[in-house]
Amino acid sequence: MSKFVQAAQTSQVLSLTALEEASRQGLREADIEHLFLALVLSDQLAGRVLREMGIGIDDARRAVREQHDAQLASLGVRATLPDPGRIVFHETDGYELKQRAADLIGRAGGKSRDGSAAAVLRELVAEPSGLIADILHRLDATPQEVLERLDRSVADGVAAVSEPSLSKSRASGSQETFVPASADEVWDFLADPVRVPEWEVSVGQIESATREVRPGSVWEGRAPEARPDGKPVKIRPPFRRRLIELVTAECPHRVAWRFVYPDAPQSRPILNEFTLAPTTGGTQVTITTSWTRHTGWRRLVGVPLRPMQKLMVWLRLFQTGSAISRAFR
Questions:
Q1: Does residue 218 sit in the same domain as residue 242?
Q2: How big is the chain by its Cα radius of gyration, in Å?
Q3: CA distances from 214 to 211, 226, 247 (A)
Q4: Which of 10, 33, 119, 280 could form a disulfide with 108 if both were Cys (CB 3.0 to 4.6 A apart)?
Q5: What is the rounded CA–CA span in Å between residue 284 and residue 278?
């Protein structure tokens, strides 16, 4: 993966996660403390390092809140911030990163930096205001300790991030996502047909969801009539209905669903597979989506579009992973 692609993907993931965390607090701007929370949730090396230090998302949120309270108290302001609610970022609009947070991400992808989450974390613990150092202190950690752990982990080597694979007969892509919940909880969520609309954007509701949940069972899904923010969605008639088959259900390690548009015979069935592995602080979920390529002239016409196809595969995987993580936050 090129430095540019890695930096762009990391920026997208961390920015949106930070904005989601800000939305829990009723804020429209995400600052560097929200970037810190996003790093705690990152599936990359930086997130693993923080979690292995015992910094989980609940403790990190508590430390951020305590630091905000302490800052207000130092100014003579005695106020209690409202309790955080659920994430509403995907249901509303008007969100943006504060300039210093955006600049920090930019520096992490600058000269001699690779744009990874680790580069963002290095910039974050060195930021001059001391806010992140104070938050780390509340978590019984220091910036120096974070950097030392990060250096040791880099020296040990890490697995490369997989890119969408486009073979001759089948196209596929994989993406890893960290979820702050046990493998059993995540498996129950992914294996429940009623909850498919929570992570599959093309499905708004499930019909006849009372049948037995076992491999081979098929449900009918209906396309959403509106986006999460309430804006109406126009769906062409052939794509309003979708058959959803549970292909694999191996608790608590693997779930696979097959999606078909029965009214669009030229479309290809899509297989979504989820592989779950327990990890420090939660579960690492590997999401793989694949489908059979068109043959003949349709395949030839599609060749120039493959770079765009790779991008669309990554975006779909990112959306799915974000939705799964969001369900447990």
A1: yes
A2: 21
A3: 9, 30, 8
A4: 119
A5: 6
Q: What gap in Å lies between CA 9 and CA 264, rounded to an integer?
A: 32
Q: How many helices (H) and strands (E) does the chain have?
A: 12, 10
pTM assigned to the model: 0.89
Same domain, 144 and 193: no
For residue 149, list its beta bridge partners.
none
Q: Are residues 89 and 205 in the same domain?
A: no
Tokens of 297: 């002239």
The CATH number that applies at residue 304 is: 3.30.530.20
- Is the Cα dihedral 224, 226, 227, 229 positive or negative? negative
Residues with Cβ within 8 Å of 236's Cβ and at least 6 positions away in sequence, in order, are none
Question: For 191-315, where are the E strands, in sequence order?
Answer: 205-207, 218-222, 241-250, 254-260, 270-279, 282-292
Q: Are residues 68 and 210 in the same domain?
A: no
Give me the average pLDDT of each 10-residue run along the chain (329 residues).
79 96 95 98 96 97 94 81 85 94 94 90 95 98 97 73 52 91 98 96 84 91 89 92 96 97 92 97 96 58 56 88 95
Residue 43: CATH number of its domain? 1.10.1780.10
Q: What is residue 44's DSSP assignment?
A: S
Report residue 34 as tokens.
Answer: 């929200």
Using CA atoms, how far apart are residues 183 and 167, in angstroms rounded to an integer? 31
Amino acid, res. 200: E
310/296 Cα distance (integer angstroms):
21
- For residues 104-130, one letter each, b for 16 or more C-beta atoms within 10 angstroms of the residue's C-beta and e for the rest, the string is bbebbbeeebebbbbbbbbbbbebeee
